[in-house]
Amino acid sequence: MKLMKKIFCYFSKTEWLLWSVSTAAILASFLLFDRGSYLTLSASLIGVTSLIFCAKGNPIGQILMILFGVLYGIISFEMAYYGEMLTYLGMTVPMAILALVSWLRNPYKGNRAEVRVNTLRPHEYLLMLGLTALVTFAFYFILKALGTANLIPSTLSVTTSFAAVYLTFRRSELFALIYAANDVVLLVLWVMASFTDKSYISVVTCFLVFLVNDIYGYINWSKMKKRQNRG
Questions:
Q1: Which has more pLDDT, 127 or 157?
Q2: CB atoms near residue 50 (< 10 Å)
Q3: Helix (H) or strand (E) segment spanning residue 212
Q4: Could you tell me the pTM of the whole model?
Q5: Higher pLDDT among residues 18 and 96, named by residue
Q6: In this structure, what DSSP letter does residue 185 have?
Q7: Do 136 and 155 meet the contact criterion of CB atoms below 8 Å apart?
């Protein structure tokens, strides 16, 4: 009972409302357009829950993100979105593991439920841009050789995903903003997929919900950074 009360008090009313509306939208979309792919439903619910924890700077979010990445990789493979599969299983999941270690090693004032927000120097942004360009260039030809569906959006997804996971690992508040950009790319990909199979509308709903949550994550991390800098 004390644990449940502690969990309930941990999130603000806004965060509970955001999570509740997000999960309700995912469930409604599943019941209306899918009713079959429980793997997609599970991935969506785990993913949106991970985002609310990540928005708080809580390492639990990274644990859930690892699980989401594995499930999403399987879903992408079934749709022949090999770029998404390779991105999540070969990059996002391993980087989420590294991010988890980084977040656990850098708690704010000993509070393991909140990571210390980092301020990156200009040269590190240049490094990130260089690495992102190299990864994008390499993946374009890999995905082309694999016959990936919707090659350009799939390549852009790799670009935004790599930048986002790098910034997550480095504990920058900008990670959520780049993930929001990634959500937009993924919305394009899955809208295209939904033209041939209406059940994928539930995936579209998932990433629309993710977009809203990532925007909130950026806002909250910006507030966290200001508060931590004052403290």
A1: 127
A2: 24
A3: helix 201-230
A4: 0.91
A5: 18
A6: H
A7: yes
- Location of structure tokens 């409302």: 17
Work out the average pLDDT over 165-189.
94
Residues 6+ apart with CB under 8 A from 127: none
Confirm if 142 and 86 have CB atoms less than 8 A apart.
yes
Which comes out higher in pLDDT, residue 139 or 225? 225
Neighbours of 196 (CB within 10 A): 9
| Residue 110 tokens, joined | 């000993």
**What stretches of the chain adopt beta strand conformation (E)?**
107-108, 111-115
Q: Which helix (H) or strand (E) holds 188?
A: helix 174-194
* Cα 223 from Cα 230, distance rounded (Å): 11
Q: Which of 69-78, 79-88, 180-189 has the lowest mean pLDDT?
A: 79-88
Whether the per-residue pLDDT at 199 is higher than 70: the answer is yes
Burial class (CB in 10 A: 0-12, 13-18, 19+), 24: exposed
Residue 152 · residue 191 · CB < 8 Å: no
CA–CA separation, 61 and 64 (whole Å): 5
